[in-house]
Specification:
Number of helices: 61
Helix content: 55-70%
Strand content: under 5%
Structural class: mainly alpha
Low-confidence stretches: 143-158, 504-511, 579-594, 813-818, 1285-1351, 1360-1375
Number of strands: 0
Radius of gyration: 48 Å
Oligomer: single chain
Shape: extended
Mean pLDDT: 79
């Protein structure tokens, strides 16, 4: 067929070119075989050289054959075909401009060039798409194999790098489309198929996920420009809109690419309307459709969010069509619309000079953002807070909205979502950092100026009102006489003007009055303002408008015009009725104070409003601090880090309450999370290591002052945390030498300072010595002189701090095997120990409460640093005991009656003596087990090394020694020998009659056994502690005194004694677990002690013992659960922390829940129903694993059959409702429906199970919803008709007794409630409901005889059951 006789139709598929569709339609005649393709391509090239671009008309079959065999032909041939076709299309695009301008071009030539254009473009584009498809498949293979040498493999596959060849082809097509090629078509209308052909390849390229890679940026830009030309020149708007929306739905990677393209079209190509079209298409998507299409919703959301960031002004006009998505179910679309609104507020609707319409739009957007801060979805709430954070950071939030948005942020701090809480904290921090009020936000600092300026404003208003009243009190007659001369002069000037000129100058307001009364009021007001010209004009106009009304009715015609008008004006101004109304109005606009007075009043009002806003802002920050400080110990690391950063910022703004938060974060230095620990260090680094000051000394002084504030009323734990932080700073050399220098100057009083400042300086020096011992070690004599020299009266607080500082120069830990040098010790004759002994013995006879903590520190320091510390401490004890005996002798010599033999010792002396003996006993034990044991090990290791070096090589290889070394028995045997040696000393020697400590045992036991005789609270507390310390030494002595200790623990009326003994027994449980194990119920019993102090101490001790696996948990841990509802917040927080830590120990809580539920719901010893719900809601929150949930559901359902009361049934139903059930858990409930079906008549139980159904329906699949519906039907049937409602007609219920016999027993027997008959089980000693009551010991305080009253339990009350607890090594027991 001749090229001039056919027409090339662009096919929808390549196969259409093989079929004849209509007359004169081009059809491929022959598909050339692969073997002949190279020669045919060369023939095409030869024809091209002769005929130019029209050569395609004769050789299109060759290109079609290459496309047909594309997967099979040689890569070189593909490359040649692409290169040649590119040259053909390029040549054609160069020739077309001249042809299009040729008016003499014939129809046949035009048709030929049109066919050639379509053939060339079709061939080039199909070849491009074939290469792209092959490249996409290769990239997927590379992802599976691995990314190594991916580029080289791709190049080897194609013979060239296709990623570099795409861009020139796309640029060539763009150049072609920029020509005015529409004249090649009839009527200059380009067929839609041609435009779709070109744009289709662009969309095909965009579908490749690698298009987003940075290396493909040129391709993206080329595609964007090609589509931009199609949009502007070829009416591609509608098709592009539909295609873009479809691609956003199906290709998640395309959102940022399409955003860049659309924003470029809207700005560079002027196609802003495409933004509106795309947004309208998205807006028309139904919310229900998007709720089902999560991928499409995600694509739309990303597109809208990024588009708003690039072209917010263009998007602003179309945002209204998106508002329906704010009420849709898909949270991503809500987030996208809110983000778009925020971008418009930031970039378009920002500033103080907005028009009213723009300001209203901005307010509506902010209202919407604020409303969605309470959205049902936590991600939307979080996003709203994030957007407000950006708005605040860029200072785009109007001041009038500060209070509302801050209230939103403070309210969201209590949100259940961790993400929302985190973003609420960030928003409040942004408010602080960008607040327009002040760099210091203290309530106290702001309240004073606010009150002062408010009072000043009230005075100014009062003065203004009094001035106005005084002006109003002037008689109208007097005012009229005063204004009359000027009024007459003005009137004469107006009367001299021509009437026409006067009418032209007359203002419109002269005729504005609707009635005569309004006209009179207007005239009176103008006269009062001295606007005489307007008053005269209004009067003359009113006379013509109201000729029949008083006082404008025409009067005597013989009078002159001037006289008439003056008379009329005088009548109006002096009218009593008008005078009562108008003067106030006049004064409201022009006060006698003048314009300057009004300006001053306005400025004062603005100042007061500013101060009021600042004060309200400060109050909101203070409120937030109280809430955020409670979030300091959340489980989420990111939240804790945000809280720490918030308090750093609050502190920098001078909020007084920030100091509490800064203190609360101190314990986080021990956190196991490195991020939290580093956040604390950074916080203190910002707050304290970078103070402001002109010099290094001034900065050091500010740093010391800030650290000293933290030490005020600080607990021991706070001081230890601060010490750890300062140690880190010292080790990293972050503290300047000027700080240490100034601390020494304050400690030695070279710089004037108060006693408290001096004491804090010594304390800080001791903390620094932990990091660098030489800070104190090089000035030891100076420290001794500072705190231990003779003074009157002695400063025991300073002396105690000096001792603690000196103690930091040595390592308190047990010596490790790697250390070969002996530990640091000072000789007994050192001045330090001499002064310590003197201060302890001299202060013994004085009732100073600070002496007790000082002597404890002194004894500890002596054992830590002295050589032979037991000698020094024995001298202390002997000296104090000698003083006590001397006091007794003085009392006996002063007795009036020689026959009286009862000797009385002051209570404080006895308390001092026993307390000192207890401290020495405990430190002697520590000294033996740590220092002496460590020294023995060190010497043995050194000896073994020496022997090892001196042995001959042949002696080293003996068989027995080798076997022992291989088995590791040499070191273990030696360790056991040394441990037995230390244990023997403690058991046999320390408390025998030959030792100093043994002399105090009878006195100590006498005081503890006779609380009636020795009833002083301090004495009882000191004696009980001392007895506990003595018991730590020897297992035999401990065993003999345990009954006495637990008797005092249970029956002492003094909370201090019970609290101390709780600590003592906890330590004994660690040291001698086998001895204390039978007494464990007595430890748990203290968790219900009536005294808050005792419950708190018991909670701390039991937390430690349980987490260390030192006491039995099963059967009694419910007592810890009861603390969750303790009225004291600190105790409840302690219990929550315990269960948090316990939840980290595998399945601990899951294993304990059956016992806890059984005991707390027990009608005889449990808790009330509401507290039970509170406890179980917290505990069941730890059950997160599906298998645990399913198992618990089954056990709880089976537990319904063994429960005895309706209360237990309700409790079990509540527990089931609190579990995070899954579909499998629902099937477990259906399988065990018979267990609880007959209990559903109770409304509470029925409601609990209905709540389970509602939870299961949320987000359930169709199968899960069907199962939930079935379960609900069975619930309602049983609720209304009982269990019979589920039986089929004619069936009979099984025998209940038989049912019970066929119930499968749960694997965990703890769910089975014991029978009421408990004949074989002896109740624990702590149960008050036991049938056999224990004998009570009454503590009497009125004993007058010398008879001793025993406070011990009887022999039959002593627990006999012992449970041995194995430990790895006995010599590692701590005190």
């Amino acid at each position: 067929m001749s090229p001039q006789l056919y027409e090339f139709h662009l096919p929808l598929s390549p196969e259409e070119l093989l079929k004849s569709g209509s007359v004169n339609q081009y059809v491929v005649q022959e598909v050339v075989s692969i073997r002949h393709l190279p020669s045919q391509l060369k023939a095409f090239q030869a024809t091209f050289r002769a005929q130019g671009p029209l050569a395609i008309l004769e050789h299109f079959d060759t290109i079609y054959s290459i496309l047909h065999h594309f997967r099979s032909i040689d890569p070189g041939l593909k490359e040649d075909a692409l290169e040649f076709l590119t040259k053909v299309v390029s040549r054609h695009s160069q020739e077309l401009p001249a042809l299009l301008e040729d008016a003499t071009l014939s129809a046949s030539d035009r048709s030929a060039h049109l066919n050639a254009l379509k053939m060339n473009c079709y061939a080039l584009i199909r070849l491009l798409e074939s290469f792209e498809t092959t490249a996409s498949q290769t990239s997927l293979v590379d992802l599976d194999v691995g990314g190594k040498n991916k580029k080289s493999r791709s190049k080897a596959t194609h013979g060239f790098d296709w990623e570099e060849e795409r861009q020139p082809v796309l640029q060539l097509l763009t150049q072609l489309l920029q020509l005015d090629i529409r004249h090649l078509w009839n009527h200059s209308i380009i067929e839609e198929e041609f435009v779709s052909l070109v744009t289709g390849c662009c969309y095909h390229l965009l579908e490749n996920p690698t298009i987003t890679h940075q290396k493909n940026r040129p391709t993206r830009e080329a595609v964007t420009h090609l589509l931009g030309v199609a949009l502007t020149r070829y009416n591609h708007m509608f098709s592009a809109t539909v295609k873009i929306v479809q691609m956003l739905q199906h290709f998640e990677h395309l959102a940022p690419v399409l955003v860049a393209a659309v924003s470029l079209w809207a700005t560079d190509y002027g196609m802003k309307s495409i933004v509106g079209e795309i947004v309208r298409e998205i807006g028309q998507k139904g919310p229900q459709e998007l709720s089902r299409d999560a991928s499409g919703a995600k694509g739309f959301a990303s597109f809208l969010t990024e588009l708003a960031e690039r072209v917010p002004a263009v998007l602003l006009s179309s945002v209204c069509v998106l508002l329906d998505h704010l009420d849709g179910e898909n949270y991503m679309m809500r987030n996208a619309v809110l983000a778009a609104m925020a971008e418009m507020v930031l970039q378009v609707l920002n500033g103080d000079h907005l028009e009213d319409t723009a300001r209203d739009t901005r307010d509506q957007f902010l209202d919407t953002l604020q409303a969605h801060g309470h959205d049902v979805n936590s991600f939307v709430r979080s996003r709203a807070l994030q957007l407000f954070t950006r708005i605040v950071q860029q200072k785009a939030l109007p001041l009038t909205r500060f209070q509302g948005v801050m209230a939103l942020a403070v309210g969201r701090l209590a949100d259940r979502s961790v993400l929302v809480c985190k973003n609420a904290i960030q928003l409040l921090a942004s408010f602080l950092a960008n607040n327009p009020f002040s760099c210091k936000l203290s309530d106290a600092d702001l309240a004073g100026p606010l009150q002062k300026e408010t009072q000043k404003l009230q005075e100014m208003r009062s003065q203004r009102q009094s001035t106005a009243a005084a002006a109003a009190a002037v008689e109208p007659e007097e005012e009229w006489e005063a204004m009359l001369p000027e009024l007459q002069s003005t009137l004469r000037q107006l009367l001299e003007l021509p009437q026409e000129v006067e009418d032209e100058e007359a203002p419109e307001e002269t005729a504005a009055a609707a009635t005569a009364e309004e006209a009179k009021g207007r005239i009176r007001q103008l006269l009062a303002k001295a606007r005489y010209k307007q008053a005269i004009r209004v009067t003359r106009a009113a006379r013509s408008h109201f000729p029949e009304s008083e006082p404008f009715r025409l009067t005597d015609a013989e009078e002159s015009e001037e006289t008439k008008l003056l008379s009329l004006l005088g009548t109006i101004f002096k009218d009593p009725a008008a005078s009562a109304q108008i003067p106030g109005q006049a004064m409201g606009t022009d006060a006698p104070a003048g314009p300057s007075g009004s300006d001053e009043l306005l400025k004062q009002e603005m100042l007061v409003q500013y101060l009021q806003d600042a004060h309200n802002f400060s109050q909101k920050i203070t409120e937030a601090i109280g809430i955020i400080s409670k979030m300091m110990y959340e489980n989420t690391t990111t939240v804790v880090q945000e809280v720490i950063e918030f308090f750093v910022m609050v502190s920098q703004f001078g909020v007084p309450q920030a100091l509490c938060g800064v203190r609360r974060m101190l314990p986080l230095i021990w956190s196991k999370e490195p991020g939290v620990r580093e956040a604390v260090l950074n916080a203190y680094r910002q707050l304290y290591l970078s103070p402001r000051g002109d010099s290094a000394r001034a900065r050091a002084q500010a740093l010391i002052q800030n650290l000293s504030l933290l030490l005020v009323d600080a607990s021991v734990g706070t001081i230890e945390c601060l010490e750890e932080i300062l140690c880190e700073f010292v080790r990293k050399d972050e503290l300047r030498p000027a700080v240490t220098q100034l601390l020494w100057e304050r400690a030695t009083e070279k710089v004037p300072c108060s006693p408290a400042e001096r004491c804090s300086s010594v304390m800080l020096l001791g903390m620094l010595a932990r990091g660098k011992p030489e800070i104190v070690g090089s000035n030891l004599d100076t420290l001794v002189s500072i705190g231990l020299d003779r003074k009157s009266p002695p400063d025991y607080r300073l002396a105690q701090q000096v001792c603690q500082a000196i103690a930091n120069i040595s390592d308190r830990r047990k010596p490790s095997l790697g250390k070969r040098h002996p530990p640091f010790r000072l000789p007994q004759e050192h001045r330090l120990f001499e002064r310590l002994r003197e201060m302890v013995t001299e202060g013994f006879a004085h009732p100073d409460p600070l002496w007790i903590p000082f002597k404890e520190t002194a004894v500890t320091l002596t054992y830590q640093l002295a050589e032979g510390p037991e000698v020094i401490c024995a001298q202390m004890l002997q000296g104090c005991a000698r003083q006590a005996l001397e006091k007794l002798e003085e009392k006996s010599s002063s007795q009036e009656e020689p026959s009286q033999t009862i000797l009385v010792l002051p209570t404080f002396l006895l308390m001092h003596l026993l307390s000192l003996a207890g401290d020495v006993a405990l430190q002697q034990l520590v000294h033996l087990e740590q220092a002496v044991s460590g020294e023995l090990i060190r010497r043995r290791v050194l000896q073994e090394e020496q022997e090892h070096k001196t042995k001959e090589p042949k002696e080293k290889n003996t068989g027995s020694e080798t076997m022992e070394e291989e088995l590791g028995l040499v070191g273990a045997t030696a360790d056991d020998t040394e441990a037995e040696l230390i244990r023997g000393i403690c058991e046999l020697e320390l408390l025998d009659g030959k030792q100093v400590l043994a002399a105090f045992v009878p006195l100590l036991l006498k005081v503890c056994n006779n609380p009636g005789l020795y009833s002083n609270e301090d004495l009882c507390a000191g004696a009980s502690l001392a007895l506990g310390k003595f018991c730590m030494i020897s297992a035999s002595f401990c065993d003999s005194q345990l009954r006495l200790l637990f008797t005092m623990l249970e029956k002492s009326p003094l909370p201090t004694v019970r609290s101390n003994l709780m600590v003592v027994t906890g330590d004994l449980a660690i040291r001698f677990p086998n001895l204390v194990d039978p007494w464990t119920p007595h430890l748990y019993a203290r968790l219900r002690d009536p005294a808050q102090q005792v419950r708190k101490t018991a909670g701390l001790v039991m937390t430690h013992l349980i987490l260390k696996d030192m006491v039995k948990v099963k059967g009694q841990v419910s007592e810890m659960a009861v603390l969750l509802i303790d009225p004291e917040p600190q105790i409840a927080a302690l219990a929550r922390n315990f269960f948090n830590e316990l939840s980290h120990k595998g399945n601990a809580i899951y294993n304990l829940l059956p016992d806890i539920i059984s005991r707390l719901s027990d009608p005889e010893g449990g808790v009330e129903e509401e507290p039970f719900h509170t406890i179980m809601k917290q505990l069941l929150a730890y059950i997160t694993k599906d298998k645990q949930t399913e198992s618990l559901v089954e056990k709880l359902c089976q537990r319904f059959r063994t429960a005895r009361t309706e209360r237990q049934h309700r409790d079990l139903a509540y527990c089931v409702s609190q579990l995070p059930l899954t579909e499998r858990g629902l099937h477990r409930m259906l399988d065990n429906f018979d267990c609880f079906g007959d209990k559903l008549s109770d409304e509470c139980i029925f409601g609990a199970f209905l709540s389970v159904v509602s939870k299961l329906r949320r987000g359930a699949k169709p199968e899960g919803k069907a199962a939930a519906d079935e379960f609900e039907q069975k619930l309602r049937a049983c609720h209304t008709r009982g269990l019979d409602g589920l039986e089929e007609t004619g069936s009979q219920r099984a025998n209940p007794a038989r049912k019970l016999s066929t119930v499968s027993v749960a694997p965990d027997s703890d769910f089975v409630t014991p029978r009421p008959c408990r004949t074989t089980r002896r109740p624990p000693p702590t149960q008050q409901r036991s049938s056999k009551r224990l004998p009570r010991v009454v503590f009497s305080s009125d004993e007058s005889s010398g008879e001793e009253l025993s406070a011990e339990m009887r022999e039959e009350e002593t627990p006999r059951k012992t449970t041995p607890i194995r430990r790895a090594s006995a010599h590692r027991r701590g005190p």
